[in-house]
Specification:
alpha+beta; globular; single chain; nine-stranded mixed sheet; about 35% strand; about 180 residues; 6 helices; about 30% helix
């Protein structure tokens, strides 16, 4: 992982994580306006309009500058193709944050989510001095849990009937990781 502070980018073997641009909004809207993606995420609205994308993207720069949240476009390092998004909240008093991500359905199964998640965890541990990172997923979406496991996160518990999705209560599974390389 290579973090470029001035550009606010993270580079991995295959990916470039960068801030979203206004020009990404149409692609984000198309990718997120997908029922299969919606039903596998905790907070993504559906339908997902262009206005949703523009409003969401408009907050990223300020959130990053104010160390509230780090939101990155997950893109191909060479072609620039947008694959999805990854974000990390910053709860400074507790030195931790919640990670969330989505990858567009047409790119599922290529390891982009895992590669991006590993990089963001390394970024917040090394650059932002987090003590802990946690993430949650709908029990009905075990693929998201596999990403967390591949990042070294450990199962911490289940929040029973924690969210309502499509009129039904769903369990949310919690994973976490502690920074073992703290100074």
């Amino acid at each position: 992982m290579i973090y470029q502070k001035t550009e606010k980018t993270i580079e991995t073997d295959r990916l470039l994580l960068r801030l979203f641009k206004k020009e990404d909004a149409e692609t984000v809207s198309r990718m997120c306006n997908n029922y299969n993606l919606y039903k596998s995420t905790l907070t993504l609205p559906y339908p997902y309009t262009l206005d949703c994308a523009l409003l969401w993207i408009s907050t990223h720069e300020q959130n990053f500058e104010e160390n509230k949240r780090y939101e990155f476009a997950v893109t191909d390092k060479f072609s620039g193709q947008l694959y999805g998004a990854i974000s990390m909240s910053n709860q400074q008093p507790h030195r931790n944050g919640e990670m969330g991500y989505w990858i567009a359905e047409e790119y599922w199964g290529n390891g982009y989510g895992t590669e991006a998640a590993k990089a963001v965890i390394e970024f917040v541990f090394s650059e932002k001095k987090y003590h802990r990172v946690y993430a949650r997923f709908l029990k009905s979406n075990p693929a998201s849990g596999k990403i967390m496991e591949k990042c070294g996160m450990e199962y911490e518990g289940i929040q029973k009937d924690h969210v309502v999705k499509n009129g039904l209560f769903e369990d949310v599974v919690l994973y976490g990781i502690i920074n073992k390389n703290e100074e």
